[in-house]
Design brief:
Blueprint lengths: L1 H25 L9 H29 L9 H23 L4 H10 L1 H19 L2 H7 L2 H6 L2 H16 L4 H28 L1
Helix pairs in contact: 2-3, 2-8, 2-9, 3-5, 4-5, 5-8, 8-9
Length: about 200
């Protein structure tokens, strides 16, 4: 059962990449929007945040259903969130900055929303590296503490996305609602469960 569910997760997370590949190979970049380069960068980042949010929300649902043996399914979601975030960063470097790394550093210093996005990406990178079984065993109990950094990271990522799109549209609203649920559950989830069980 776990293998089937893991396969469904991988297919679901890869489908947007298949669609994007088709768009780019067909040359129909107008499907991305009026400004294909910028819209592509936003699409990559939005997909990363959505998958990141789903990773948290799946954990909440499994906790409510008392199916914690399936929490391992969150791992491929975290890895896919990193893959999409990496594509987002690469897209920004190539399409927006033309691989000008000095410009990237200056932009990072001057624009607060890039700092927040950079911190979120760094946390995803740390989570990915520490998910390697050997490193996870070495960290022992510290592994859980390291992965708690995912909570501020998802908040930073949501703010980064909102600032980057420069407006209240459907994307930031959807992400804002999901992040609000995640943060609420982080601090009040156990109390909510206890009330339902009482």
């Amino acid at each position: 059962m776990l293998g089937l569910l893991r396969g469904i997760i991988h297919i679901g997370c890869a489908l947007p990449l298949a669609w994007l590949s088709y768009i780019l190979l067909s040359g129909d970049t107008e499907a991305l929007g009026a400004d294909p380069s910028k819209d592509l960068i936003h699409f990559l980042g939005y997909t990363a945040i959505i998958i990141f949010c789903v990773m948290f929300l799946l954990g909440i649902v499994l906790q409510i259903l008392n199916k914690n043996q399936y929490q391992i399914l969150r791992r491929p979601l975290g890895l896919w969130a990193f893959v999409w975030a990496l594509l987002h960063v690469c897209g920004y470097l190539v399409l927006e900055l033309g691989l000008d790394f000095s410009l990237f550093i200056s932009e990072l210093v001057l624009r607060p929303y890039l700092i927040l996005g950079g911190v979120a990406f760094l946390v995803l990178l740390i989570m990915t590296i520490t998910s390697v079984p050997f490193i996870k065993r070495k960290l022992g109990k510290k592994w859980f503490s390291v992965h708690q950094l995912a909570y501020p990271a998802i908040v930073f990522a949501a703010i980064h996305y909102y600032w980057s799109v420069k407006g209240v549209t459907l994307g930031p609203i959807v992400i804002g609602i999901m992040v609000a649920v995640i943060v609420l559950w982080k601090f009040a989830g156990n109390s909510i469960l206890q009330r339902f069980k009482a």
